[in-house]
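Treating backbone geometry as a discrete language has practical consequences that deserve illustration. No coordinates are needed to read the tokens, only the vocabulary itself. For completeness, the protein is quoted in full, as a sequence line and a line of structure tokens:
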Amino acid sequence: MSERGIGFSAVKNRPPYAIASVDSALLLATLLQHEGPMRVTDAAERLGVSASTAHRLLGMLVYRDFAEQLPDRRYGPGRILERTPLPQAPVARLRELALPHLRRLVDELGETTNLMVLTGPDVRFVATVECEHVLRVGDRTGRSLPAHLTSGGKALLATLAPGDLDRALGQHDDETAARLRRELPTIRRQGFAVNDQDTEAGLTAVGVAIPDRGGAVASAISVSMPTARYARDRLRAWSVALSAAAAAIAADLDAA
């Protein structure tokens, strides 16, 4: 782990003694917080479980105030999760529209792809499509990371207006802010950012911001891989593919 690294492994497999029901309940609580109310059948589909299992999980979340049942019989985030900074409906719509493009990117590039949104000083991952390599970057859905360390986060910081950027950089120490001020003009000019083991040793990612066409959610996509498979001579191809997908997602958001 590098000195600036984050305290979890993104290049990982599931724990050897994973408790599936706990994992499903935690993921379901995260989905309710990020995306808002859903039906039992929606929850079952997202988790890949039966409707009866999803119903039992939702029942436990309600019991512990992580969820509540609404008058229309959907389930929404409970009072423990109510302080989410994300506008739920736009994020859910963004995820729905972005997923087909993320899947196509995985087919084209052969590496894991991610969708993230900017929330304060962090980016929160709202969707991941994993590639099929045995050694791969795993699902990061629900995780938050400092924006200035991630590829998508840096790409988003590069799009901020001067006043917004000053406020964002004001949250960092002088050394970090100065480093970002040197790096962001290059990111702005080339249209993509690279996270070369800034969040974790052995992990490299390339990210681009989704063009802002008046939407309420600042978002980005990235392709992430073990550093051993990163090659600078492929950077151009990765950035072009990401930029095309980001533009297509923006167009779909406009059409929606």
Remarks:
- Helices lie at 20-35, 40-47, 51-63, 88-109, 151-157, 162-169, 174-190, 235-255.
